[in-house]
Structure formats: C-alpha cells, structure tokens
Amino acid sequence: MAAAESVVDQRLRATLIGLSAVLMWATLGLFGAGSGAVPPFLLNALCFGLSGGLALIYLIARGRLHLLRQPWRVWAFGTIGLFGFHFFYFTAIRNAPPVDANLINYTWPLLIVVFSAFLPGERLRAHHVVGTVLGLAGAAVLIAGAGGLSVSLEGTALLGYGAAVASSLFWSTYSVVSRRLGNVPTEAVAGFCLVTSLLSALCHMGLEQTVWPASLVEWGSVAALGLFPVGLAFFTWDIGVKRGDIQVLGAAAYSAPLLSTLLLIAFGFGAFTAAVAFACLAITLGAVIAAKDMIFRKRRI
Q1: pTM of model > 0.85
Q2: Under a CB-based contact definition with an 8 Å cutoff, are residues 288 and 295 in contact?
Q3: pLDDT at 5 over 60
C-alpha cells in the first residue's frame, strides 16, 4: 500500500511540476510580440542559447554532464521538436496579428488530448472529436475576423496563419511522443536547447538580415523568453509528460490560450472583440469536452 501511495505521490508531483510550464507559456505571446523586429532564427538562437547555456552551467556544477550522452535519434527528436515549434511560432506572430496567431497556435492542447488517445491503453472517443472540432471552429472564426476570410488571406497573413498551425502540430506531436522516451533524462533537454540555438544561428546567417532588439524593453523580452517560456518551461514540461498525467496536463494547458490572449490585449497587442471572445470560449469549451474523462472522473478511495 505504501509503495502504491508513493507512486501516486510521484505522479502527482510530476504533474504539478508540468503545470508550471503552462503558466510560463501563457507569457510566450506577450514576450514574443514585445521582442520587436528580431527575425525568427535570430530570436531562436538568442533564447535557446541563454536557456541552454544556463542549463549547461548547472549540469557542470552538479557533475551531471554525462547525462547529455544520448543516441542520435534522441538528439534529432528533441532538436527538431524544439527548433520546429519555435521557428514556426515566431514566424506566425511576425506575419499575422499576434492575438490571432496566438490562439491558433494554442490548439496544441486539443491535439495533445487527441494524439494521446493513440498511446498504449488509450483510444479515441466521440467526445475527443467533438472537442477538437469546437477548438478548430474557434480558430476558424478568429482567422475570418470581422472583415471576412478573404481579408485574412491577404498579404503575409496567410503565411502567419499557416505557421501557427504548423507550430501547434509540432508541439503536440513532440509532447505525446516524449511519453515514449521516458528513460531519457530531463537533463538532456539542455543539449536540445544548445543544438537548436546553433542551428538557428546558422540559419540566421544564411537566410536573414540581422535586426537586434532596439530597446531595453525588447532586450528584456528576449531575456524573459530565454529564462521562462523558452527555458525553464521545457524542463518542467518534460518531467510532466514523462512521469505525470499527460491528459491532465493537456486539459490544464487549455487555460494558457485565455491567459496569453488577455496578456496580449492588456499590453496593447490586440483588442478584445466578439471574434476573440468566441474563439476563447470555443477553444476552452472544446478542451473541457475532449478531456472530460480526466476532469470528471471519480476518485478511487
């Protein structure tokens, strides 16, 4: 009995640690928009360089540097997941209205619930499908906007919306597949961050024009990204999805779109319109329906 309780306690602790990542990710849209005109690859390089560098110092100080020795498949998986998600996310908020791109990106919690149904011992049910459709309906209304869908598809907005969809797919897939790599220590995320920073720097030099943050506020936003939503959050999320309840984490992540959107609006990066209100309601309601088994299940005594 004691051993069983210990396992339950460990699972609960890991879930709570994972939930801290959700709170940090709620600031991703705000800090990303506040970082100015820094191009996506350079922004990736700066943020991941800061988070990976600090994590590397920590591993050296604790004598855990050997934990970075992992098979190449693990390195490839982690790097592609982190690099792909953030490149597409920052591209989205550069080319589409930040509020719109932010809400579309945050359909990833819905996808986590759906994709996790294909993990061993799980299966997709009707309420998963209903919840996902509601979330996508909210995103569709947001893209259409008050002026109609044709207006939203003009200029670079289409690129931004497409990048937001891609970022959602990257992160949901990365999170669910991470569950199958439970033996890989969380410390390995430090290596993923460093390689992602290097790749981003190389891509920046070859594809982008350098634009540094232009003010103290923009530099502060970049630092905040590297420390929290593009830093510590990855480590706490890794603990959560590997050792905690992934469906609880997926359901809780649905609070991030609302918190993130309200932060963007509060700091002047968007307006609270009827479309935004509907999108928030539809995405959140869809999330609750998709995860109803986890939210409303009876506790065993």
Answers
A1: no
A2: yes
A3: no
Residues 94, 97, 102: CA angle, nearest 5 degrees = 85
Among 81, 84, 114, 80, smallest CA distance to 250 is for 114
Q: According to the model, what pLDDT value does residue 153 have?
A: 56
Judged by DSSP in three states, 148 sits in: coil
Gap between the terminal Cα atoms of the chain: 12
Which of 194, 291, 225 has its CA nearest to residue 90? Answer: 225
Residue 249 · residue 22 · CB < 8 Å: yes
**pLDDT for the residue numbered 301:** 43
Asked if 261 and 29 touch (Cβ cutoff 8 Å), the reply is yes
CA distance 253 to 266: 21
In order of 72, 222, 244, 286, the CA distances from 228 in angstroms are: 27, 10, 20, 27
Contacts 24+ apart (CB under 8 A), 34-37: 34/217, 34/218, 34/220, 34/221, 34/267, 35/213, 35/218, 35/221, 35/222, 35/225, 36/211, 36/213, 36/214, 36/215, 36/218, 36/221, 37/211, 37/214
**What is the reported pLDDT for 147?**
42
Tens digits of residue pLDDT in 145-170: 534 444 455 667 888 889 989 999 99
Q: Which of 31-35, 135-139, 240-244 shows the lowest per-residue confidence on average (mean pLDDT)?
A: 135-139
Q: What confidence score (pLDDT) does residue 174 get?
A: 94
The DSSP letter of residue 211 is: -
Which residue from 275, 247, 34 is spatially nearest to 142, judged by alpha carbons? Answer: 275
Name every residue whose Cβ is closer than 8 Å to that of residue 291 and which is 6 or more positions away in sequence: 113, 131, 247, 250, 251, 254
Residue 92's contacts (CB-CB under 8 Å, 6 or more residues apart) are 101, 104, 105, 160, 161, 163, 164, 167
Q: Which amino acid is at 201?
A: A
